[in-house]
Design a protein that fits this description.
By secondary structure, the chain is of the alpha+beta class. It has one domain. It has one helix and five strands. A five-stranded antiparallel β-sheet has the order 1-2-3-4-5, with helices on one face. The radius of gyration is 25 Å and the shape is rod-shaped. The protein starts with 10 loop residues before the first helix and ends in a 7-residue tail after the last strand.
């Protein structure tokens, strides 16, 4: 009499594999999301500092020297006309932040990277930079 060997795997084995995959996913997914948010925040911070450099260049070519009028349409606040309005600034992928001028005078400015899309859930929220070097929020890990 010929004895057949069973081929394949049992339902119990399949359930164990699915449970292990589910457990791994619940552990790794939040860590992955955190890494993506931190990487996007770094993009936002770098763009904000580049934007501040653009504001300084704008200031140096104005006569008389002023930060006023750097926004779209020559306004003092709003979307910048001298720099990209979104992050990433190269135009690739999903946009993480809107860049705006929130205050501009003849001697000072304040600019912000306002989170949007998936970055809107980031704990740091809006990133702010002032011409005097002020950086907000001051929460650990945000700057």
């Amino acid at each position: 009499m010929l004895i057949r060997k069973p081929h394949g795997f049992t339902l119990i084995e399949l359930m164990i594999v699915i449970a292990v995959i589910g457990l791994l996913a619940t552990i790794t997914y939040p860590s992955y999301i955190d890494k993506v948010e931190r990487a996007s925040r770094e993009d936002g911070k770098q763009a904000l500092l580049q934007f501040a450099n653009a504001m300084e260049r704008y200031y140096s070519i104005q006569s008389p020297m002023s930060y006023e009028g750097a926004a779209d349409g020559g306004a003092d606040t709003g979307e910048p006309s001298i720099f990209s309005t979104e992050v990433p600034i190269d135009g690739s992928g999903d946009k993480h932040y809107d860049l705006v001028i929130t205050a501009a005078s003849s001697t000072a400015f304040t600019i912000q990277a306002q989170p949007k899309n998936r970055q809107a859930n980031d704990d740091c929220g809006t990133l702010t930079y002032g011409s005097d070097g002020t950086r907000l929020p001051t929460t650990d890990g945000c700057w």
